[in-house]
Structures are given as structure tokens and as C-alpha cells.
Amino acid sequence: MTHNRYVVILGCGRLGSYLANRLSRDGNSVVVIDKDEATFRNLSPDFSGFRVIGDAGHMAVLKEAKLKKADVLIATTREDNVNLMVAQVGRKIFGVPQVLARVFDPKREEVYAQLEIDTICPTSVAADIFLRAIANDAAKMRGKSS
Amino acid sequence: MTHNRYVVILGCGRLGSYLANRLSRDGNSVVVIDKDEATFRNLSPDFSGFRVIGDAGHMAVLKEAKLKKADVLIATTREDNVNLMVAQVGRKIFGVPQVLARVFDPKREEVYAQLEIDTICPTSVAADIFLRAIANDAAKMRGKSS
């Protein structure tokens, strides 16, 4: 796997910090942006990247994170609109090659796709896993009764 | 796939309502429990199951949902403690054969496993998908430059 990529992560909540810790440990250069400084305690002691405190809606904050240099931008906040806006800015203004965004509302996925932003909807993913588990269990029970 | 199973879903938020709509459409008997009646508008117009308004911490509410008859119990609220408690009650007191729970804090997954409750942590799942997408993109880029 290629390491040493420059990754900017928006949001240091559960998902953002998990990714930051993991990508940092794997040898990538990681910058995490969050407007709430308290979220940075989600980072592990061996996190070797940078922390930027600020509102990602401000160009100055994105510049401080050196978004222009980024190979990857990941928008992980709990707000779809924030993720969409910053992802677009990253793609169109800063020319980031790979942009990924978390999107809670599955109906928005189409908009993101048209803007060439890769999305993941945790709700759909979780639902699919639950449905598979139920189907597998049903299959097992059929096996037993036959 | 076996249809016509009796499924009780705790929580009618994004995940709970998605599962309820899907499982109802597939021909299962579905009961959704939520203490907030407003969440039921997440159910689609063709949802053919039952709605129970109430706190799942009360036995009367679980009895009203006929949990004893259930083939499957899925706990989907945003609160790990609520999901764990109701999942345990479903397994131990009502003898539900399959119990699934959403868990936000990955550290709690071990506790659930010991209680024989299947869990899914949307944060871990989403993170893994993001990490795979980044790794794939890196592989593509290496392919181009070689």
C-alpha cells in the first residue's frame, strides 16, 4: 500500500479521529480540522499529524491545513451540508485528487456523485449488514428444520 | 429468503425506519417502538406493520410489542446503553432467538459478544470503507505512474 500521502480530515469525532489515528499510524501525513478543540482528545497519544482548530467554511482555515497539497480530503462531520460544501471547495478550488464524504441522508448521494465526490452513507451500510444477518439466520433455521 | 418473520425494531430514526420499511415490504410482520411519536413519519406510506409509542425500558411497552413472539429483535437507537439493556432483556427474559444491536462505541462490542448479541458499529464499518477507497485510489495512481 502507498504510504506517505497527505490526508486532510474534516471533523475529529468518532469517524474522523478513527481515520486520523489509523492513517497516521500507517505512515501518512495527516491534518485534522475541527472547530471544537475538545474533539482532539479523540486522537491517540501516538498521532503524529497536525491539528487545525477552526471553521472549515473559512478559506483561511483550509489554507492553514494546506489543502492545496492534499492527496486526499475526507469530510466526516455530522452535517451533510458542511461535508458537501467543503468537499466541493476541495475538489474545485484546491484541486484535491480524491475527495470522500460521509453523507447521512441517502437522497443526497446522487448530488455528490454528480459532483464526482465519493460518498458513504453509514445508515445504508449498517442496514445492509443487519438485513444480511437476518437473512443468514433465516437460512440457518431452514437448514435445521429440513 | 424466508419472509413472514416477526421482527421488533427499537428506534424509528434513520436506521430503524429504513429497516422497518424494507422488512415490511419484504413480507415480514414488523413492530416499531419509539418513545417519540414524530419519528414514525419516517415510515413509508405502505408500511404495513405496527407502531408502539413508549419507553422500551418499561416491560409493558415490550409486552405491547409482543416481544415474546418475535423471531428477531433489532435495537437501533442512538444510545448504546439503551440498545444493550433492551437487547439483554429480549434475549434473557423474552427468549428472542436473534438479537441485533447497533453500537456506536467500538469498545463495547466485546461486552455484547459475550452476551451473545450480534452488533454492528457503523463508525468502524464506514471507516473501513473509506480506508479501502483510499487504498484503491493509491493503487490506481501507482498503476498510472509506472
Automatic annotation (TrEMBL), chains A, B:
GO terms for molecular function: potassium ion transmembrane transporter activity. Residues 4-122 form the RCK N-terminal domain. Coiled coil: none annotated. GO terms for cellular component: plasma membrane. Keywords: Ion transport, Potassium, Potassium transport, Transport. InterPro entries: K_uptake_TrkA (IPR006036), NAD(P)-bd_dom_sf (IPR036291), RCK_N (IPR003148), Trk_Ktr_HKT_K-transport (IPR050721). PANTHER family: POTASSIUM CHANNEL PROTEIN 2-RELATED-RELATED, TRK SYSTEM POTASSIUM UPTAKE PROTEIN TRKA. This is TrkA-N domain protein. The lineage of its organism: Bacteria, Pseudomonadati, Thermodesulfobacteriota, Desulfobacteria, Desulfobacterales.
